[in-house]
Amino acid sequence: MAKVLILGGGFGGVVAAERLAKQLGEEHQITLISRSRHFIFYPALVRLAFGKCERADVSFDLRHAMLDRRVNFIEAEVARIDPVARKVTIAHGEVEGSLPFDFLIFALGRRLATERITGFFEHAHHLLNVDKAIQFGKAISNFHEGRAVIGQCQGARLPIPVYETAFALARRLEKRGERQRVRITVVGPDGSGSQLGAEADHALNKALAAHDIELLSDFPIETITRNSASTNQGDNINFDLLMLMPPFRGSSVASYMGITDAAEYVNVDSSMAVIGHERIYAVGDCVNFDGPKMGHMAVRQGEVAAANLAAEIDEREPVSHYSHEMKLVIDQPWGDSIYVHKDIETEEPGTVRQGRFWSWAKRAQEKYWELSHF
Ligand SMILES: Cc1cc2nc3c(=O)[nH]c(=O)nc-3n(C[C@H](O)[C@H](O)[C@H](O)COP(=O)(O)OP(=O)(O)OC[C@H]3O[C@@H](n4cnc5c(N)ncnc54)[C@H](O)[C@@H]3O)c2cc1C
Asked: Whole-prediction pTM value?
């Protein structure tokens, strides 16, 4: 009998748990630990901010879903992992002390390093949790004129909601007859574009220009005050509404284990096994792969880790390998949503498609996720 612990109840952890529940015999024990019993469907948070869906549409009860799949669920905060003694220390929650494991899947996501940007916490909106998305939504309702700045800080790895927010805001202001009163600026940190590849940049820049949205792609924000954001070169931008993706780092739980890069992302091989420790896998936003961090990557990595962990328990070689690619839809409210597919490892040109269909496909994907998991 093997004890498998899965840390983190996001896309990566949930899919890994579901897959293991299907692949492992009843004699093995599977436990999922996460700090909250609520699974958050992050891709819907832009729509939540713009009042297109409700809080109840973006959050699902994990305990209920996991019990159906014979996975034990524990609501608790993970503090440490001892990879040699094979135990996880719980800081607080439904259990206390430490939990032993034979195999572990690390899926604790990313940490928001807001402390790296002076004034971020006090003056910037963001979309990285449900409450913040609702708070940003209230600010949008009260915003009627001036300048809106929307963007990514250095180290943020999430361009999709930045563009979706800029487009949705332009559309909302058009509908209210206030578009002429507002200047919208998208900012990026290093002039390297959206992180989605040259083909996607071409389509995005065209869409921004068509809707009179300004792009400042080389504006690394370091300091924010009540109405102004500045770089360390002394460039300033004033704003009346600010929404930024903060810098990301890997989970601090992994940082002392000697298994991460400088930004605390966990090093894994293509079987999703952690490099440097046996019987430990990692999946999702917490792993050290290039490019943006996305839910579909976490899902695929969860599937790969589960298949290989099941094989390892049976003393077989790894059976599944992860290949790093992007597949995403950026919603545009004018019915011209942008679909991008790109292999990140080979640097082959990406495929870009546009049209109303892609927006519909994104909604259908959300519905499928909800129906098949909760
Ligand atoms: C606004 C927004 C829009 C997005 N849009 C898209 C999109 O359109 N398409 C796309 O593919 N991706 C999108 N993403 C990205 C996607 O949501 C993430 O890549 C995905 O959530 C990563 O899944 P994960 O399981 O690795 O991490 P997470 O979903 O972050 O899950 C990590 C889990 O671990 C838990 N946890 C963390 N630390 C601890 C601890 N110490 N103890 C216990 N539990 C802990 C957390 O509570 C959480 O449940 C978007 C993200 C946001 C924020």
From this structure: 0.96
